[in-house]
Amino acid sequence: MSFWKEKKLAELTDEQWESLCDGCGKCCLNKLIDDETEELYYTNAACQLLDRQNCQCTHYGTRFIHVPQCTKVTADNISELTWLPESCAYKRLNEGRDLPSWHPLITGSDDAMHAAGMSVQGKVVCESSVRDIEDHIVLWPLKDMD
Ligand code: SF4
Ligand code: SF4
């Protein structure tokens, strides 16, 4: 049963909601907004709590204690979170799209996502090691597939 096709986002159980997250880690990258154009830029500087190998938050249950500015994605705020990557499962479903072919719920594991380059695996540094954040602007988080 593809529950995400049968229910609206607001109707999902907590377990279903959490399972929709692909674990790409792209939302955990620092982002910059141009003051004049308001254009959004992704960087390869990851939150200090992100495990840069498996792309998971190392303190997910207590993350707001460690990183108060971390954002909880919900059915209520998903439309306002315009900074989420185009590939984000929540963003895609909220826009009436389906999950991508590489999504863990489709393939049964994270492997296809990592292999397709749709996660941050192997491409990021810890924010604590960054001197000039503008030197870390990257385009690959903008990539989306099917
Ligand atoms: S971008 Fe979306 S799908 Fe990917 S880890 Fe963040 S919340 Fe989950
Ligand atoms: S606290 Fe965890 S979920 Fe929040 S941005 Fe950092 S790594 Fe991501």
TrEMBL record:
Native source organism of the sequence: Shewanella corallii
Protein name: UPF0260 protein L2725_13575
PANTHER family linked: UPF0260 PROTEIN YCGN (PTHR37421:SF1)
UniProt record similarity statement: Belongs to the UPF0260 family.
Transmembrane segments annotated in the record for this chain: none
InterPro entries with a match to the protein in the record: Puta_zinc/iron-chelating_dom (IPR005358), UCP006173 (IPR008228)
NCBIfam families registered for this protein in UniProt: PRK05170.1-4, PRK05170.1-5, PRK05170.2-5
